[in-house]
Amino acid sequence: MNVFLERVKQLQASQNITQKELSDITGVSINTIRGWFSKDVIPDVFYAVKIAKALNTTVEYLVIGELFNPDDFKLYKEKYYSLVAQVQSFIDKVKLD
């Protein structure tokens, strides 16, 4: 089973939510939900958002197993720009040689 559906299943179990109840909460048919599990298919983003909300989590958690932290984005952005500056400096140096 893919990671997304495994996390959905774990959250359902921990919150005592059946597939039928998930269907009722999200408005997604029970047959569609059962199809995802039987075919091991990750639902499209529209449904992923509905599932995440129903299970009181985020799509990020269901997909990658981590909750999004805005501070992480700032750190990665700083590292990215620093790396870009280093690469540009290297390119400029090579052009001069």
Number of strands: 0
Q: Which radius of gyration do the C-alpha atoms yield?
A: 21 Å
**How are helices and strands ordered from N to C?**
HHHHHH
Please give the count of helices.
6
Portion of residues in helices? Answer: over 70%
Largest sheet: none
Counting helices, strands and paired strands, the structural category is mainly alpha
Distance between the termini: 54 Å
Whole-number mean pLDDT: 86
Beta-strand proportion: under 5%
Overall geometric form:
elongated
Could you list the spans in which at least 5 consecutive residues all have pLDDT below 50?
none
Keywords:
97 residues; mainly alpha
Secondary structure elements and their pairing?
Blueprint: H1 3-15, H2 19-26, H3 30-39, H4 45-54, H5 59-64, H6 70-96
Describe this structure in words.
It is built from six helices and no strands. The radius of gyration is 21 Å and the shape is elongated. The N and C termini lie far apart (54 Å). The longest helix has 27 residues. Helix content is 76%, strand content 0%. It is mainly α.
Write a brief caption for the model.
The protein has helices spanning 3-15, 19-26, 30-39, 45-54, 59-64, 70-96. Helix content is 76%, strand content 0%.
